[in-house]
Amino acid sequence: MLDLSGLLDIALGRAAPDRVAARVPARYAPRAAAPPVVVWNVCRHCILRCPHCYASATSTPSPYDLTTEEARALIDRLAAAGVRVLILSGGEPLLRHDIVELAAHASAAGLRPVVSTSGVPLDARMAGALSAAGVGYVGVSLDGFAPFNDAYRGMPGAFDRASAGLAHARAAGMSTGVRLTVTQRNAGEVAPLVEWADARGVDRFYLSHLLYAGRGFRMAGDDLRPEESRALLERLFEAAERLIHRGAAIRLVTGGNDSDGPCLIAWIEARHGRRAARRVEAVLRRRGGNSAGERILAIDHRGRVHPDQFFTACELGDVRRQPLAEILAHPLREALARRETLLQGRCGVCAYKSLCRGSHRERALARFKALWAPDPACVMTDSEIGAPLEEPDLESTEAGTREAVV
Predict the structure, then answer these.
(1) Exposure pattern of 196-218 as b/e (b: 16+ CB <10 Å)?
(2) Predicted confidence (pLDDT) per residue in 194-248, tens digit
(3) Using H for helix, E for strand and C for coil, what is the string for the chain?
(4) Which residues contact 349 (CB under 8 A, 6 or more apart)?
(5) HSE, side-chain direction, 13 A CA sphere, residue 19
(6) Phi-psi bin for 92: left (phi > 0), alpha (psi -120 to 50), beta?
(7) pLDDT exceeds cutoff 70 at 404
């Protein structure tokens, strides 16, 4: 996640780098044996039918979901390993009957529980129960305004119910966020939805780039072209700066494409000069780029562990069958830790490699069937990264990919 508002505060001289890093300490934490953040898909079923769903959510509960007893034991193991933030996701996590119990157990174990939801089942009773259980933040996914959101997600009235859910969460004392996964179909919804979220007291607006995982794999053709993504990002940077000058409380962030960082540096240099850009670049180098498998892991509804929630082609282990220490020792984690030496093509020689670290490997796998190939969604030009190259020799990389994807 890239904190655009925080980084622009640094560029404008309004905030010290340490203050911005303190907002998301897990993102700046040293890489350790256990990651500070775990995304856990507590169930697979959902009441919506989003076409980009990375979990390929189903309409009925899976018989393979972890039981309450297994789930509580998993939380204890994560806490003992040093995990600090547990993101409860799905499917629709609020459909799980024991979700409040699990959030409370995580909080009691010393974890910070966060909920990622469609917002549709988030009524006043649920919001109050989650808040009492120690949940401090609820993120709600929207794809635009009604009627587009409702048709796209497959439920009439979904937007209004999600909007009400955000209000219930705020009334219960929780911070809130809106997350939009952008495609060709809803790029025009971004700017007005930012204003809508700000007007309703939402704390964070999260623009997520499309990841080619789950049902999203079939949507790769709907992704924005790199030049379109860049134009949208630059409009979002402008919006973030306007909101800062306006004194708005909402923070704008992006995720799903680590080339957003170098893009922001270039935009700041053109708008505010090299010194401002250098301040931001120093923070991004300290932050590092993509950290799938390092600062973050994901656990699916069956207990299988992946480098992140979109990286489902690679499995590190199974919490039902293996000790956590064994899972954390998977060789793919070691490879990801040294990914900068393994990246190929544009990513391998990019001048911003330490800021981006090749972005999302799952997109490279989906497009090229090669783990270390370039991320096709990079928004930077060849001249900017200093490396006009041909595409990688995929035949030479596929053996390494097959070896890594175990």
Answers:
(1) bbbeeebbbbbbbbbbbbbebbe
(2) 999 999 999 999 999 999 999 999 899 999 999 999 999 999 999 999 999 999 9
(3) CEEHHHHHHHHCCCCCHHHHHHHCHHHHCCCCCCCCEEEEECCCECCCCCCCCCCCCECCCCCCCCCHHHHHHHHHHHHHHCCCEEEEECCCHHHCCCHHHHHHHHHHCCCEEEEEECCCCCCHHHHHHHHHCCCCEEEEECCCCCCHHHHHHCCCCHHHHHHHHHHHHHHCCCEEEEEEEECCCCHHHHHHHHHHHHHCCCCEEEEEECCCCHHHHHHHHHCCCHHHHHHHHHHHHHHHHHHHHHCCCCEEEEECCCCHHHHHHHHHHHHHCHHHHHHHHHHHHHHCCCCECCCEEEECCCCEEECCCCCCCCCCEECCCCCHHHHHCCHHHHHHHCHHHCCCHHHHHCCCHHHHCCCCHHHHHHHHCCCCCCCCCCCCCHHHHCCCCCCCCHHHHHHHHHHHCC
(4) 385, 386, 387, 389
(5) 10
(6) beta
(7) no
Convert the pLDDT of each residue in 236-287 to its tens digit: 999 999 999 999 999 999 999 999 999 999 999 999 999 999 999 999 999 9
CA atoms within 13 A on the CB side of 142: 34
- Structural domain boundaries of the chain? 2-339
| Cis amide linkage into residue 134, ω under 30° from 0 | no
Q: Are strands 251-255 and 204-209 parallel, antiparallel or unpaired?
A: parallel
* Residue 133 near residue 108 (C-beta atoms within 8 A): no
Whole-model pTM above 0.85? Answer: yes
The CATH superfamily holding the domain 2-339 is Aldolase class I (3.20.20.70)
Residue 32: pLDDT band (50, 70, 90) is confident
Cβ–Cβ under 8 Å, residues 138 and 172: no
